[in-house]
Each structure stands twice: as structure tokens, then as C-alpha cells.
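User: Can you recover a sequence for this backbone? Please restate the input before giving your answer.

Assistant: Of course. Working from this structure:
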């Protein structure tokens, strides 16, 4: 039901007494809460149910204290819209749909709504809520909620493409606000890029634009085909901005450019990432086609695929057959129209394209375009000769543009220009072939201009380098990258004036047609320039590898260029390049984690006795990158492939290292038995005796980490065999005493030993050993009820990682929230959760491990506070995240939590089901049910939640149910 916001300046509104206004507001809230609860019972997805329940709780708090104020109505309508969005988008959804963009969008929505609830509940608990509707600053907070809800609706529509239309005025207002305040929408990675504007110089194309626009408006896919520089992209941009198109598609007009992607290395993943980014979608880890399809399925949309030859020319590769298939699937979505621009006629099959060969300009339009740039003569004075010259150019738009700029910048009169052209073109004109023949004529003439000729061969060398690097040349680094090119700044300026390059984001770049011409017609970068490029980038990688933060800014800014150079060198200088390859992967993991086009290049390395070790090193570091991206299956696969190569190469040490890494991936998922079996098999293998003592100690350490959870060894045995090792000894001693405590050892004795070990860590400067000791001391203090001491230890951990590791700060801030919850300060607990999640809420969605930690701990806090409905929604979200990541341990904790919620509501049958599921997960993990929390004390639920213990003991009320 729609609500009208108050208009204080309106003369039509009758006066309303304070009492009648209070009643109206209260009634409106009651109706809204009822509608939301009704929808909650209808939606099939538990995560959506939890979101709706939280919204109802927010409004219930407002309803209970409302006093003569209608400010809250400003957000009621937005809550109603969210209700409609959820009802529609989840109507036919299944559990499998949560692994795509729907799950990501719902998770983002849940974080934001929970944040609002925590603020509201905190104010109520502190008995300050009544002032919320009177104090100006708190009115500002309600206004802030309104903006947050606007943002949520906008992001949700962009992520899922919800079919309930959001108020157009609201979206326009958000767009205007975002221009003036970059932080008004705090998620640029979830916003679609702005469609490009209509080209300022577009001559002779009005009739063609009108005809093509008619096809688009009538629901037909069009493919614009022609040589580079013919104006295909300009036509597509003109269609995007035609009034009929903007009226039909509004803000659902997307421009996906493939410019900058290398056909020789492009993968399905990189193409779909580029596609998703143009739509405002972060596709990491999920099915990108489903994410894109889900967004596009809700309403009419126009998508331009520009420079499609990039993937069409590479489609012979078996790995890229998926791209045309994905395009065909998207084209089949009702209401989605595609415009494709390409130099190739190999358009994606199974799409009913209306193919249009883009013609050259007519004579009149060509002259208009030329004389718009060339101002040294009027059209009348130079009509005959220039007309013939333009005809020689075949009226090719880009060639005309380049030629006019060359003549204008060099001050050539029409006769001089004609003479220059006559000297250059005759032999080429007789040839009559070539995909960019007119451009090649113009390029030769432009390159022969005095300003460029004056620079000598250096200009051509620089052009070749700019064309070689996919990002172009970083201007701030150009003197270092091309150290022997003394006039690099002058050359860049001249090339820019001649319209051969353009500047964007600190880089000197080329338009795709010119880059193709340079690559096809000019010599590749000579050995001197290639050596200089390689030396600079490889030295940067080396420095970054040795000093983790050294030159990280260059790794981040030039990552695509570096990746391209490494890929190029793997094909031409493989042996010299392999070490740089794995070092670059490590730097990428540290500073700019993303999918890499090096994956297929590494996989395709021919295996021989000379490459076994080198390929294995690359695969090992590739696994590390996958692990950082939370792509655990891919990480395990890369580890396993590296293991096999190391073993074949006769290097058991590195094989053992990869196997241990793979075992630890299993441990992190709660698969303790599998982790334990893998490491025990290593100890019984022929390779075990060949391992170094330190590697054996590492294997024992991670084996005992798995055995600690399964209680298959005594505490006295754990971490003993690794404790004498120089590398693993100190950490093993820390974990030995932690295990003693987890197994019921004397807390005083454990505390004494951990404090002594902490002093050793401080003296050695080992951050991670110090972290483990502080965590152990926090666990002991927590279990002994010394909650202030536990809080101090966790605060020390936060300060250790502040400015160094944002994920570590988030992790221990959330742990502090649990301690605050046990102290009974639920408001502080929620505040800490909010503090931990706010700067990283979108990062948390991309890093599944962080998201699970945040969701489960939030659920535990709300459960302890007695907010069962909110806790239930958090536990449910965590379970769905665990299903995506195959994480058994967090899933077990969350099912136990749901069981306690059911037990508290006296729904003992449901509680028994939840507890049975928990016990089943314990069996799968290899963890004794009674010891589910023994090794993670901070995850333990308060003693008042006794349902799990009664269930395990078979006591009432579970004696008969079981």
C-alpha cells in the first residue's frame, strides 16, 4: 500500500491534531507489520524470511513508542517495496538459486537490514529510543536509514533485477546525489557503469541510426560488422542514446567493451567478469551466466557487446566455446536485446542476428567530418581536391579523422596535403586488399608528418610498445619502463596531438583500430624495448616478492600489463620466465587478488623433465591465489596437480608441502577425518623418509591440528613431535598447551605456560606465534569467567593487525563482540559487530570465510540477547553460506543454534530435528558431539541453552522424540 510523505507547504491538507496523527501512524505501522509477516509466511527462502522478520521487528519497536511523529513513515514505504521485491524474486526460487546472484543479493540486503535493527535495538535497550523521534540528530539517523534503504533497493535491483519497480524519482535523486557525494552510494562495485554518451562528431549516420534503432525497439538483435575505424562503436553509442531507446530501456542500457582483452589469452572467466562488471555485478566464485541472466531477466534491457572480435577470433579454443553459448543463452532471455560490434563475421551462433555491414560515409558527410577538424581552408576553396582525397580514403571515418588532424596540426595547405597523399598512396591503392587498408594509408601519412618524422624511429618504437601493452603506457612510469627513450614525454605528446593515442587514467592508450594496425603493420617492439619493459616489471615483481609492500602500487596499477608481459615471455622465454610467473601470482594474491589469464597458460605448459618442477611451482602459487579468492575447490585441484609433478620430478619436499596445504584446506572446511587420513597416508608413503625434518614437523603439526578436533589422541601426545623443530617448535608448544586446556587441563598451569611462551614470541618478533598465544590466553580467560582479561587479549590482537590485515581486525573485533555479549552488554556487542562489518560488508560477501564468521557470531549474540527471530535468520544465512563453501564446522554450529531457538520456543520436535542434523555433521567431521565446542570455546553458547546437552543425554523432553 502506498504512503504519501508529509508536505508541510501544502495548503490543501487539513489540519491534523497530534492525537489523530499518532493514531494514523500507529495504524499504518500495524498494517505494514501484518503485511510483512504475511509475506514472510509465503516466501520459500529462509534467508528472505529472516530479512522480513528483522524489518517487522524494527517497525514493532517504532510502533511501541511512537509519539506524535510521522518521520518513520518516510521509510515505511521503502520497507513495503522490499517486501514486494522479496515476494516476487523468491516466489519460485529454490535452494540451488542461492548459489547465484540471488544469494549474494539477499546476503547484502540482510547485512544492511540487520545493521538498522542493531541500532534500533541498542537505542531501545539503553532507554533512549523515545528520544529518537524528537531529537534532530536522530531524525537525521532515520533519514540516513532512508538513504540506506534507497541504496539497498538500487543495489538489489542491479544484483537481481527485481521485478518490482523502484520509484524512478528516487533513483534519479540517488544518481544526482552520487555525483556530488562519492560516498552516497557506498558500493561502486555493485553499480552499473554509466552508458557512454552519444558521440559529438557523428556525421551522415542519422538514417542508419534511425533504422537500427527501429530494429532494437522492435526486439531484434543486431550485429554491426565492418573493418576497424568504420564507426561501429559510435553507431552503437548513438543507438544507446536515441530517445526511443532511452524511453524503452531507461537505465537498463549497458555497454560491454572487450577492448583491452587479448584474444590469445582470453578465458571464459575473464570475459564474463568484464560482462558482469558492466552490469554492476561482482561474479567472484559464482556462476556468472546465471548472475547476469538473473539480473537481465526481470525487465527489458539493451546490451552492447563492443569489439566482439576479441572473443570471436579466439573461439577456436575449446576453452572458449562457452562464450558464444553464454551469449546465445542471454539473447534468449525475454526482453533482452543485444547489439554486437565486430570486425569479424563470426558472430555468436544460435542468435537470430540482423547483420548490418556498416558502410563508409557518403561524400557530403565525409567532407563535413573533415572540415569540422581541418580549419585551414573552407570547403568551397578546397572542394575538388579534398573530395578526391577523401574518396581515395574510401570515406573511412577514422582515417578521415586522423588525416584531418595531421593536416591541421602540421599546418598543411590543401595542395601540400594532396602532394603528401600522392607521394604515399599510389602503390597501396593498387594493392586493394587488407582489413584496414584505408587506415594504413592514413597511418602512413600521419607517421610521415614533420612533428613525428622529427622524432625519428623512436616514435614508431613507442607506438609499438603502447600497442603491445593492453593497458597502454603508464605515463608516470614511462621513463623507467622505456629508459633508453629519452624523449618519451615529447613523443607521447606528439602522438596525442596527432590523434594516434589518447590519455585515460594516467595511461597513454590507443583506440582498438589503431592498435590493430600497429600490431599488424609495424614491427613488434624491438629487443631493446622488450628488454627494458621486462627488466622494469620483473624488477618490480622481485622487489615486491622480497618486501611484501615494496612497489605494491605498481603491481596494482599495471597488473594487466605485467600479466601480459609474463604471458608473452612464457611463450618466448619460458625457462627465464617461470620464476617471475609464480612471484607475480604471489604479488597478485597479496595486493590485487583476481582471476588471472595465466591459468590456461600455466595449464598448457608442456610437461617434460625440464618443466616438471617449473610448472609445479606455478601451480602451487596459483593454488595460493585461488585460496585467497575462496575458490577452495580450484585451490585443491591446483595443489594436487602440483603434487603429482613434484613427485614425478623427484622432489618429495615440495610434494609434501603441497599435500599439507591441501590437507589444511580440508581442515578449514571441518573435514578433519579426510585431512587426518591424507597426512597419515603421507607418513606411510615412500616419500616420507625423504622429507626434511622441518617438513615432517609441519606435517605432524597439521596432523595434530586435525586430531585435536577429533579427540583421537591424548592431549599429552598432541604437538609433541613437532615441538623440537626450529621452525615449528614455538607454535607447537603454544598449541600443545592450548590442546591441554581444551581437553580439560588445569587452567592455571596452562595460563602460566602460555604467558611464558608469549614472552618468547615477543622477543623473537614472530607475529603469528604471538597471535596464537594471545588467542589461547583469551580462550582461558573466557572459560574462567575473566571476561575483561579476554577482552584485553582480543583488543591486543586487533591492535596488532590494525593497518596491516583488515580481515584480522574484523575477525578479532567480532570475537570481542562475543565476549561483550557474555558480559550482558548486548548493545556493545551489536556495536562491535556493526563496526566490524560496516567497512567490509561487500568484501565479506566476496570472502566466504569472513561472511560465515560474521553471520554465525551475529547469530550467537542475538540468541544470547533473546532475539530468537533475528538469531534464526543469521543461523539460516550461515547454513546457506556453508552449503556454498562446503563448510561442515560452521554448519554444525548453526544447526545447533537453530535447535536452541526451537527449544526455547518449546517446539521440541523441530529442536530434535536440528540437533539430529548437528550430530550427523559431527559424525561426518569426526568430532565427538560432546566436544563440538571444546576446541573453540568462544563459539560456545551460554549455559542457559541446554537443549543440545539434553538431546545428547536423551533426557526429557527428547526421551520419547528420539
Amino acid at each position: 500500500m502506498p504512503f504519501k510523505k508529509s508536505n508541510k507547504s501544502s495548503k490543501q491538507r487539513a489540519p491534523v491534531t497530534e492525537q489523530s496523527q499518532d493514531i494514523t501512524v500507529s495504524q499504518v505501522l500495524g498494517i505494514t507489520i501484518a503485511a510483512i509477516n504475511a509475506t514472510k509466511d509465503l516466501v520459500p527462502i529462509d534467508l528472505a524470511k529472516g530479512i522480513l522478520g528483522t524489518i517487522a521487528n524494527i517497525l514493532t519497536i517504532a510502533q511501541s513508542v511512537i509519539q506524535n511523529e510521522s518521520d518513520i513513515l518516510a521509510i515505511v514505504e521503502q520497507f513495503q517495496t522490499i517486501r514486494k521485491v522479496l515476494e516476487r524474486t523468491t516466489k519460485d526460487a529454490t535452494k540451488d538459486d542461492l548459489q547465484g546472484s540471488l544469494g549474494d543479493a539477499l546476503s547484502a540486503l540482510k547485512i544492511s537490514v540487520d545493521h538498522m535493527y542493531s541500532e534500533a535495538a541498542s537505542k531501545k535497550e539503553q532507554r533512549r529510543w523515545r528520544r529518537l523521534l524528537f531529537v534532530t540528530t536522530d531524525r537525521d539517523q532515520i533519514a540516513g536509514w532512508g538513504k540506506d534503504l534507497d541504496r539497498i533497493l538500487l543495489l538489489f535491483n542491479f544484483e537481481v533485477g527485481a521485478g518490482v519497480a523502484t520509484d524512478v524519482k528516487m533513483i534519479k535523486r540517488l544518481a544526482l546525489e552520487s555525483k556530488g557525494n562519492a560516498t552516497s552510494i557506498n558500493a561502486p562495485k555493485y553499480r552499473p557503469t554509466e552508458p557512454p554518451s552519444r558521440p559529438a562528431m557523428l556525421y551522415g549516420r542519422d538514417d542508419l541510426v534511425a533504422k537500427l534503432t527501429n530494429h532494437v525497439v522492435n526486439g531484434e538483435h543486431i550485429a554491426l560488422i565492418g573493418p576497424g575505424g568504420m564507426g561501429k562503436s559510435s553507431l552503437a553509442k548513438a543507438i544507446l542514446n536515441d530517445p526511443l531507446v532511452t524511453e524503452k530501456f531507461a537505465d537498463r542500457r549497458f555497454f560491454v567493451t572487450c577492448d583491452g582483452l587479448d584474444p590469445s589469452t582470453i578465458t571464459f572467466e575473464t570475459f564474463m567478469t568484464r560482462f558482469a562488471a558492466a552490469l554492476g555485478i561482482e561474479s567472484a566464485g559464482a556462476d556468472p551466466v546465471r548472475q547476469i541472466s538473473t539480473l537481465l531477466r526481470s525487465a527489458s534491457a539493451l546490451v552492447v557487446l563492443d569489439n566482439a572480435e576479441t572473443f570471436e577470433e579466439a573461439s577456436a579454443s575449446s576453452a572458449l566455446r562457452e562464450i558464444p553459448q553464454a551469449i546465445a543463452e542471454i539473447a534468449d532471455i525475454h526482453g533482452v536485446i543485444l547489439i554486437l560490434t565486430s570486425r569479424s563475421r563470426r558472430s555468436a551462433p544460435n542468435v537470430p542476428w540482423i547483420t548490418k555491414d556498416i558502410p563508409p560515409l557518403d561524400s557530403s558527410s565525409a567532407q563535413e567530418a573533415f572540415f569540422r577538424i581541418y580549419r585551414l581552408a573552407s570547403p568551397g576553396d578546397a572542394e575538388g581536391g579534398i573530395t578526391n582525397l577523401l574518396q581515395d580514403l574510401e570515406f573511412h571515418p577514422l582515417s578521415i579523422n586522423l588525416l584531418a588532424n595531421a593536416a591541421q596540426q602540421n599546418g598543411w595547405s590543401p595542395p601540400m596535403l594532396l602532394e603528401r597523399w600522392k607521394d604515399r598512396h599510389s602503390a597501396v591503392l593498387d594493392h586493394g586488399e587488407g582489413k584496414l587498408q584505408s587506415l594504413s594509408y592514413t597511418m602512413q601519412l600521419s607517421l610521415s608528418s614533420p612533428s613525428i618524422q622529427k622524432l625519428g624511429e623512436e616514435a614508431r618504437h613507442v607506438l609499438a610498445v603502447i600497442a603491445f601493452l593492453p593497458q597502454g603506457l603508464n605515463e608516470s612510469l614511462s621513463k623507467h619502463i622505456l629508459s633508453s627513450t629519452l624523449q618519451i614525454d615529447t613523443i607521447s605528446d606528439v602522438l596525442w596531438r596527432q590523434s594516434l593515442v589518447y590519455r585515460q587514467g594516467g595511461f597513454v592508450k590507443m583506440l582498438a583500430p589503431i592498435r590493430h594496425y600497429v600490431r599488424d603493420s609495424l614491427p613488434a617492439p624491438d629487443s631493446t624495448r622488450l628488454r627494458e619493459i621486462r627488466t622494469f616489471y620483473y624488477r618490480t615483481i622481485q622487489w615486491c616478492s622480497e618486501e611484501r609492500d615494496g612497489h605494491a602500487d605498481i603491481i596494482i596499477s599495471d597488473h594487466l600489463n605485467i600479466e601480459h608481459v609474463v604471458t608473452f615471455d612464457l611463450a618466448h622465454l619460458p625457462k627465464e620466465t617461470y620464476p617471475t610467473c609464480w612471484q607475480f601470482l604471489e604479488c597478485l594474491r597479496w595486493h590485487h587478488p583476481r582471476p588471472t589469464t595465466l591459468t590456461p597458460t600455466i595449464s598448457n605448459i608442456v610437461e617434460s623433465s625440464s618443466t616438471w618442477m617449473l610448472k609445479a611451482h606455478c601451480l602451487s602459487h596459483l593454488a595460493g591465489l585461488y585460496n585467497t579468492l575462496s575458490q577452495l575447490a580450484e585451490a585443491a585441484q591446483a595443489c594436487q596437480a602440483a603434487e603429482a609433478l613434484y613427485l614425478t620430478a623427484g622432489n618429495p619436499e615440495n610434494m609434501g608441502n603441497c599435500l599439507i596445504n591441501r590437507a589444511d584446506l580440508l581442515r578449514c572446511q571441518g573435514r578433519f577425518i579426510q585431512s587426518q587420513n591424507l597426512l597419515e597416508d603421507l607418513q606411510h608413503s615412500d616419500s616420507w623418509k625423504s622429507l626434511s625434518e622441518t617438513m615432517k614437523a609441519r606435517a605432524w603439526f597439521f596432523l595434530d591440528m586435525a586430531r585435536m578436533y577429533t579427540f583421537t589422541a591424548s592431549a599429552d601426545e598432541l604437538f609433541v613431535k613437532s615441538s623440537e623443530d626450529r621452525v615449528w617448535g614455538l607454535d607447537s608448544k603454544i598449541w600443545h598447551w592450548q590442546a591441554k586446556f581444551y581437553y580439560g587441563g588445569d587452567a592455571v598451569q596452562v595460563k602460566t605456560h602460555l604467558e611464558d611462551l608469549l614472552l618468547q614470541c615477543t622477543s623473537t618478533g614472530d607475529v603469528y606465534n604471538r597471535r596464537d598465544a594471545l588467542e589461547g590466553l583469551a580462550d582461558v580467560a573466557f572459560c574462567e569467567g575473566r571476561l575483561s582479561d579476554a577482552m584485553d587479549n582480543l583488543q591486543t590482537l586487533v591492535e596488532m593487525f590494525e593497518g596491516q590485515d583488515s580481515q584480522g581486525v574484523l575477525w578479532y573485533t567480532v570475537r570481542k563482540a562475543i565476549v561483550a555479549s557474555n558480559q550482558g552488554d548486548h548493545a556493545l556487542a551489536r556495536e562491535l559487530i556493526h563496526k566490524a562489518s560496516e567497512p567490509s560488508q561487500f568484501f565479506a560477501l566476496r570472502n566466504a570465510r569472513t561472511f560465515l564468521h560474521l553471520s554465525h557470531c551475529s547469530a550467537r549474540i542475538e540468541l544470547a540477547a533473546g532475539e530468537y527471530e533475528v538469531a534464526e535468520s543469521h543461523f539460516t544465512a550461515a547454513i546457506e553460506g556453508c552449503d556454498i563453501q562446503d563448510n561442515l564446522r560452521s554448519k554444525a554450529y548453526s544447526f545447533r543454534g537453530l535447535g536452541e531457538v526451537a527449544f526455547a520456543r518449546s517446539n521440541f520436535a523441530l529442536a530434535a530435528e536440528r540437533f539430529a542434523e548437528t550430530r550427523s555433521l559431527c559424525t561426518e567431521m569426526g568430532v565427538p558431539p560432546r566436544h563440538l565446542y571444546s576446541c573453540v570455546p568462544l563459539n560456545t553458547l551460554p549455559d542457559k541453552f541446554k537443549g543440545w546437552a539434553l538431546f545428547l543425554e536423551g533426557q526429557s523432553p527428547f526421551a520419547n522424540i528420539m
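That completes the design. DSSP finds 46 helices and eight strands in the chain.
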